[in-house]
Here is the input.
Amino acid sequence: MNKYFAICPRGLEEYLLAELASVGASELRTTHGGVFFSGEWSVCYKANLESRIATRILWHIVKGPYAKEEDIYRLAVRQLWPNHFAVSRTLRVVTTAIKCPLKSLDFVTLRVKDAICDRFREDRGERPNIDTRNPDVSVHVFLSENECTLYLDTSGQPLWQRGFHKASVDAPLKENLAAGILKMSGWQPDEPLVDPMCGSGTFLLEAVQVALDRAPGLDRTFGFERLNSFAALDWASIRQAAEDRCKAAEPLDIRGYDIDERAVRATRKNLQEAGFGGVVTVDQGDVLDVQPLTESGVMIANPPYGERIGEQDELAAFYPQLGSALKKHWAGWNCFFFTADLRLPKLVGLRPSRKTPLFNGPLECRLFEIRMVAGSNRKA
Here is the structure.
C-alpha cells in the first residue's frame, strides 16, 4: 500500500477528500491545501483520472528530520531512485517549504538533485539528464520547520490541464477551482445552469463533463506512466471503464453569455474542440440584460475583481445595476459569485446566504451565494 498527498486549491480540501474516497482511497486526512491518503497503484491511477479538484498527486517516498542541507542530501541519496524510474528519464526537482530555517531553497533543490544523480551513478554508472521545463519525472521536496519529505509526482502536467487546447481571454479560472465551485453550488446535471459572464467558458466546460459523466483526465497522459512501477494493462482497463460510462453528447440546459464577442468566440471554439459543440448554448449578452428561460436554476459568475486602477470605481457603479438585474430577472434562482472583491454583496444590495473563503492561487476570494426568492420582484 502506497502513501500519497493530493494537492488542491485551499478551501476545497473536504470536496477532494470525498472524491478520493469514491475511488477507493483509505486513511484519508485533510490539511491546508490538500489530502493525505493511502492506496494501491490502481487507486493512484483512478485519482489522477477522475479527480476534478486535485492539482497533482504526489507519491510519498520518505520523511526524515533535518537541521542542515547535508541532512537532506543524506536522506535523498539513501533512496533507491533507480528502482523508481529509468536513467533515460529527464528529471526536475521542486522544493516548497513552510517555516523552513534554511537560507536557500534553491541550494536544497541542488543538493537533492545531486543526491539523486549520485545514487544513479553508484547503481547504474550514469546519471539522468535535468529538464526544468518539461521533465519526464518530478521529485518534490517539502520542508517543514525540522522535517523533510520527498515525493515523486504521479500527475505530470497539473491535473487542471484537462488535455483540451484552450483559447482564453484575460486570466481564466483554473479548471479544478471552477470544478470545486460548481460542486459547492450544489448544481446537479438535471438543473438549468447559466454563466452570464462566461469568459473562455471554464465553468461551462467543467459542467458539461460532469453532466456527461466524463472523467476529466481522459484526454491526457500522466506522470505515473513514466515510472518503473507502471502497470499498463491495469491502467488500460481503468481508462476503458471510464470511457465506457461516458454519456453521448446531446444538448443540455447549460448556457453561457458574455458582453465581449471575443469571449463568446473563444468559448464556442473551446467547446467545439473538446467535442462538446452543440451541447451548450453560448451567446453574446450583457449580464444586466440576460434573462433566464426557466423559473429556477443555478447561476454561476466570476465577475472582474477590479485589480487595475480605475476599475474599482467602475465596479462600484456596476454592482448596484447588477443587484437591480438580479431582482428583476432572476427570482427563483440560486446565484453564485466568485470574486476577490469583498464589497460585492454590500454594493449589490443583497444579503448572501453563504460566503465561503477560497483562494485563486495566492489571492483570497469569496464564493457568495445569493438566493433570489421568487415573489414580488418577479417580472410580469
Remarks:
- The chain has two domains: 2-153, 175-214+248-371.
- The chain is about 35% helix and 25% strand.
- Residues 2-153 form a domain with the VC0802-like fold (CATH 3.30.2130.30).
- The longest helix spans residues 105-124.
